[in-house]
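Review box. Two proteins, two foldings.
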Amino acid sequence: MKIDGELIEPQELSAEFRRLMQSQQDRPDALRLPEEEVRELAVEHVINKHLILREARRRYPEVTADEVRRRVRELRKRFGQEFDPSQHREAIEDDVRADRLVSEVQASAPKVSEEAARAEYEANRSSYAEPERVHVSHIVRHTFGGADPGVALKQIMEAQRLLKSGSPFEAVAQRFSDQHGQAGDLGTFARGAMVEKFENVVFRMKAGETSDVFQTEFGYHIALVHEKHPARERSFEEAKADVRKALRERERQAALDRFVESLRDAARIERDG
């Protein structure tokens, strides 16, 4: 494949294809794309990346030392302090250029008006509703990282025996739980915050109820549900900040899509085959 006569290495296309295929593993089977669609998507991503980078290099031939330092700090947070920027100087500078261009383009997106926000809210009230939430504490004995599952089960059963004999949940959590901080209090959360097996138990429980021992991929648990908060519709005023944020992100993405499309229209893209 070539863009305005510049050859795009097949290895780059293959690497993007592998990255996208790997990202498919986190999706439910019903939402996974066929391999051919992923391959085509990889090609589109590489084209867009090259066009954005080329334009960014044209607009910003120089980058500042402060911009590079900020980017290096971000990379070290992701890859560790052993990350050596001297081996990736050109790529880091290109990242800075591309980020600056994308930010500039997205900043041109129109502001979200009150009328647009209200229309979005009225059309999609359920999307901005407050979901069902639960306030939960738990006692957990881990079975990963070298922990002995047999010992973990024995300890969680002893914790359950103490609870049934009247010992306070918080005291048993402090004594037995691998996550005993704040007596195992996980706070209040909606579905999607915890692993599915844990949520399937606690969202079926009643307020004030303590579960039997159950197992997840992390280990053995006993859960206490303090409170349950049913799902409810939020008023426009309550949801307005979220509505405006969603619309703003939509406008920013649309601005970027239009910009990339203009770059594609001006380029000569020769696909293999």
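Next protein.
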Amino acid sequence: MRYLGNKTRMIDNIDLFIRDLGITGKTFCDLFTGSASVADFFKDRYKIIANDLLESS
């Protein structure tokens, strides 16, 4: 799925989704990191693995 643009508006929904489902773990994988706003939000709670096709990422 391509999501062009900043995912900052979605961070609260992603966080709520993880909490509501009771997902646990020590690593957060941001496979389409782009500007890394999502990875940055979760960096205090998880080890971050970030990936993107864009060289600027």
